[in-house]
Structure formats: structure tokens, C-alpha cells
Amino acid sequence: MKNISKIIVLSLLAVISFSCSEDFLVEKSPDMLASENFWRNQSDAEAGLATVYSQLESSAKYWEGFQEGRQVMKQYRSDYVLYGADAANYASWTDIYNFTYTFGNPNLYYIWSINYAGINYANQVINNVSKMTEEQIDTEIRDEIVGEARFLRAYYHFELLQFFGDVIIRDEEIFGDNINKAPSPREDVWDFVIRDFSDAANVLVRKHDELNTGRATKYTALAYLGKAYMYRAGEEENLAAEYFQKAADAFKVIVDDNYYSLISDYLSMWDGTAPNSPESIFEFQMTPSEDNGAYYKFVLYYFYGANEFGGWEEILGTQSLIDEMKKEGQIANDGNYDHRLYWNCYFNDPYFNDPETNMVYGKTYNDWFGSGNDKVYFRKYLPSDVGGFDVWGLALNVPLMRYADVLLMYAEALNETGNTTKAISMINQVRNRAGMPDLTITSPEEVREQIKHERVMEFTLEGCRFFDLRRWGDLEKAMQGAGRTNFSLAEHSYMPIPEAEVNANSAIE
Questions:
Q1: pTM of the model
Q2: What is the dihedral sign for C-alpha 405, 409, 412, 418?
Q3: Which of 216, 235, 252 is the last residue of a domain?
Q4: What is the pLDDT of residues 77-126, one digit of tens each?
Q5: What is the CATH number of the domain that holds 47?
Q6: 8 A C-beta contact, residue 71 and residue 64
Q7: What span, in angstroms and rounded, lies between the C-alpha atoms of 337 and 471?
Q8: For residue 344, what are the CA distances in angstroms to 330, 339, 362, 385?
Q9: Beta carbons within 8 Å of 26's beta carbon, 6+ residues apart
Q10: In angstroms, rounded to a whole number, what is the distance separating the alpha carbons of residues 182 and 507?
């Protein structure tokens, strides 16, 4: 995607419009590019694909979409977080946290509209590039570009399925006469997403060259195909066994190939020191230089970082998170707790108050925060050096799908389909990286609960906690335990279609 991102051109954004109106007077110069005559060669096809990638993780609307909107929507509904003091200045954020939001909350619309923009761009690529002739583009390259667009179309629909209860399938370009379209049954949307992920996996390459690092591959599509089946199993209990098996089949291809591996330095995947590591299956790419006009950095570390570091401290962890992470005791190979406790959080603990090691940016926790401070700060997404907080914008990639996730989802799918022994071996790989011993449990019920614990240890602050709780049927219990008294399982398991879409789309009842 680094190479893809470099060929985004402003003119394309004008050429490929999101919608059109019959009220416009259309008068075109014969030498002016328009959507119908843009798709001339491989360069145009790749530029079109670049616009599809440009909507990834709501990044097209940098501040309201990626920097703050995505974080609030994905993190604030977790039972293990607290919002920071400054967040109280933003009612749209605290409404998400407190489950007092309405369909007029702007964050809902940002996530909805940006994902549908990505879908529309994907449809343009699928429709137009698939028609290009051998004289215009090599057929293998054409099929791969269309495959990537199908993967991204599925990705954006999958994002929408996670957030919203009602989702509209958009499988064609949006014009004035097809804007009004009703939501589809969730089963139909799942079928559509799974078909696109599967079709993409059949045509995408196993790996890209260095210039195209970050673009979706066969294994990216298979990982999300398996994940889609896992999430769907949580919704359709009568077919859960079938979906778990299909998920296991998809993950097995990735694991058996031995192409990916867990890396020892866990934090390096977020602090900028190990971008696109051997563990990365799909990663949101930042650009450290302005070569060829591409330049993309972020200040996400300000959102998560403590005030003392120079951050905004918009989100904190709870004591219950620390309790969960400590629950196995100090059984790691160095006599400490599970190393992921320390990799994910800063908190008042002997580990962070050892003056011999000074584990908090060269100081102790007490040096930074004072001995009476009991706050739980997060470490993910922070730069490797505290001096990074003096820089407005760092090129720190964001892992979106890691091999650790594939291993733990594979373990879950195996356990639910009767292969608990093999499931335990997958879990042990992830545990061993964190200094933890092999499991001694044997029953499927014990393994199921262990996987829930492992996902907290491994994926805290990666945006999946709320969705995991929902698919396990644990949402209501977790929210009650966290004191989130406004939460209603019926009202808040999924978000409503945003008000702006309801007003603009007459097919929504």
C-alpha cells in the first residue's frame, strides 16, 4: 500500500464522484478526464485502487474519522476503559461511553459515511477495471487489482456489520437513481461479505514485493474470511458449528504455510521500530517521507499518552483490567506476571518502580506520576522515545490483523469443533511469547474461558473487546460488572443507522 498510496492524485477525487445529481449542467471538454473515460491503463487502475485504500479505518476524514472518531467508537464501549478528563468536553464521545448516544451522534455518521465511500470506490474499480482489455492492462494484474477491491469492499461492509445492526449492501456504483436502498437482512450481508473475502483469497498473491508492502494478500483475505465466520457464529447459533469449521479451514491455510511468525518485541509493532513485521498480516501504513507526494502520519499517541508525557490522556484503563491481567499470578519465566500486562499498561507497580531498570521512558512510574497515583495508562501506540510527543505527527503504523489473532481465533474455532488438544497448542504459542508456561487445562469449557482471557492479554486497545463480548454473549454481564448502568442489550448491542442517512435515503423506514 505504500506504493499504492503514492499514486493517489487529487484529480481522481474529482473524477470519481461519490454521487451525482440530475440538477447539474454537464458540459465536458473532450480532453477532460471523467469516470467513463478515466480507466485507460494499469496506472489508472492502480490510482483507482488507491482511492479504495484511502478510506481504510476511516482515515479519509483524518481527525473525526481516524484520529478521534475511530478510537471513541472502538475503544470507549469496552468494559475495561475510562475516558480521560478532557473527553468530558466532547458530548459526542461521552455519549458513546455512557450509552446515551442517539442516531444523531456525529461519530456514527463519520464511520458510516466513510466506509460507504470506500465501498463506492471499490465498486468503481470492480466495475471498470474488470472491463479493461489485455491491450490496456495485463490480465493477471487486472484480476489482482479487482481482487483487492473485492477484499476492501468486504472489509468495509464487515466494519459496518460490527458497528451497525442494519447494513445496506452496496454492490454497484452509486448514482442518482440508486441512492435510495433499504438495509438487507444481516444474513444476506454476511453472505455478501464472505463471498467477497473468498473470491479475493482465490486471486490475490501470497506476498507483495517491498514497494507494495501493506497491500492485501491471499492471507489477508483468508484471515478476514475466518474472522467473518467467527463473528457470524456469534449471531447465528443454529449454524455456529458450521461457521466455526469454515473459520478453522481458513485459518489452517495460513498457519500451515509457516509464512508468518510471532515477534519477540511485542511493543515494536506499535512504537514505530518494527513496521510490517513478520507478525503483520494487514497493517495500516504511514509514510515517513514526502517522496512522490505521499505523506501520512498521525498523532494517535497524543490521544492515548499520559499528560505527563505531553499526551492528551483521552482514555485510561480500569483496575479491573489489571486484575484480569494478573489473575494467573506471577508464573512467567522471570517470576513476573504475564509480560503482556507490562507491555499493554503503565501502572503503579514494583515492575515500573524499579530504579535499576527505569521502565517508564527512563524513569520510574512514581517519578513520572507520583507515588499516590493509581491511574492505569496504556502503552500501545506510544512512540519508543518520550521525545516523540514533541513531534506533531509520527509515521507509526497500526497493525490491523496480526498472526497472534489468527492463532487465537484458530484455537477458538478448533476448540468449538472438537479439536481441543490442537487448540491448546495454538494458545501456547501466543502465551510462550509473553513468558507464560504451557497450559495444563484440558476441557473445552476451560479452554473457552482461557481464550477469553488470552484475548484481553493480547489485544487490549486493539478495538475488538466490545465485539468479542457480543459474539460470546457476555456483553450484558460485562457492562453490569463495569458499572455501565445505561447499557441495554436490546438497544446498544448495535448502533442505529445515522440520522443523516435516514434523512437522505427514502428507502429506510
A1: 0.93
A2: negative
A3: 216
A4: 999 999 998 999 999 999 999 999 999 999 999 999 999 999 999 999 99
A5: 1.25.40.390
A6: no
A7: 28
A8: 17, 9, 17, 16
A9: none
A10: 5
